[in-house]
Amino acid sequence: MSTILLVMTGADHWTLADGTKHPTGFWAEEAVAPYEAFKAAGHEIVVATPGGVVPTVDRGSLAPEVNGGQEGADKIAATLASLAEIKNPITLEDVDLDDYAAVFYPGGHGPMEDLAADPASGRILIDALDSGKPLAVVCHGPAALLAATRADGTNAFAGYKVAAFTNAEETQAGLADKAKWLLETRLVEAGVDVQVGEPWVPNIVVDRNLVTGQNPSSSAPLAAEVLKKLA
Questions:
Q1: Is 140 left (phi over 0), alpha (psi -120 to 50) or beta?
Q2: Helical H segments across the chain, by residue range
Q3: Maximum distance among all Cα pairs of the chain, rounded to whole angstroms
Q4: What is the pLDDT of residues 175-213, one digit of tens each?
């Protein structure tokens, strides 16, 4: 089988408008659900982060209330602890897209801090988009699209239909009024056609080889869409 690249945030905080560092990282479900789906289908996984740092999980994503209770929380924490690839990431600069059949970007607020302005990640995104290979991005992961600027200054994803964490969801999560900027707003400003679904309900958008999901609950169906494209 083939190898799938997971590009993950290296940030352990998100700097708010007042300078406060809000503890964060990647959202557990958004890494675990696709990992399990890809592995079950027989694919290998490689994780890449800025600087090759081991990604930090957002502790909030391990809470019982976002995992259907304590049993679900215990299960996702145990699964996460067993994922060897997350503990041994490569650097974004070392990624050769020819080595991978597909690319997947989990979210969490971490990408708002680092991937949104990371040129190496931007190059990976542009190369993946232009290659025709499946490119999947979920929740706050689309913050990384903001760094995908072509030589003429335009965003590579301008005109693409994309699902991403919405302003309504950020407001309901209690962070919209504290943020320096909001993901949905910034994507629209870059020319991206954001397809807004109901808050917290799975919303998958497919536009050519780009597949995107709005929120954590979109992670598993998004991974399934990638596997369909690889079949």
A1: alpha
A2: 28-40, 70-81, 84-87, 110-113, 119-131, 167-172, 183-189, 219-230
A3: 51
A4: 999 999 999 999 999 999 999 999 999 999 999 999 999
d(CA 7, CA 104): 6
Distance between CA atoms of residues 114 and 98, nearest Å = 24
In the block, tokens 């690889």 appear at: 230
- Say how far apart CA 47 and CA 96 lie, in whole Å: 13
Task: Calculate Rg over the CA atoms of the chain.
Answer: 16
Q: Which amino acid is at 206?
A: V
Instruction: Give the residue from 207, 167, 208, 213 showing the smallest Cα distance to 186.
Output: 167
Residue located via tokens 């992670």: 219
One DSSP character per residue, 23-80 reads E--B-HHHHHHHHHHHHHTT-EEEEEEGGGPPPPBPGGGGSGGGTTSHHHHHHHHHHH
The structure tokens listed for 153 are 């200054």
**Over the stretch 54-71, which tens digit does the pLDDT of each residue have?**
999 999 999 999 999 999
Listed residue (52, 57, 184) closest to 121, CA to CA: 52
Tokens at 28, concatenated: 């557990």
Residue 213 φ then ψ, to 5°: -130, 150
| Distances, alpha carbon 221 to alpha carbons 128, 189, 217, 226, in Å | 20, 27, 8, 9
Predicted TM-score (pTM) of this structure: 0.97
Place of tokens 């190369």: 127
Residue with tokens 């890449």: 48
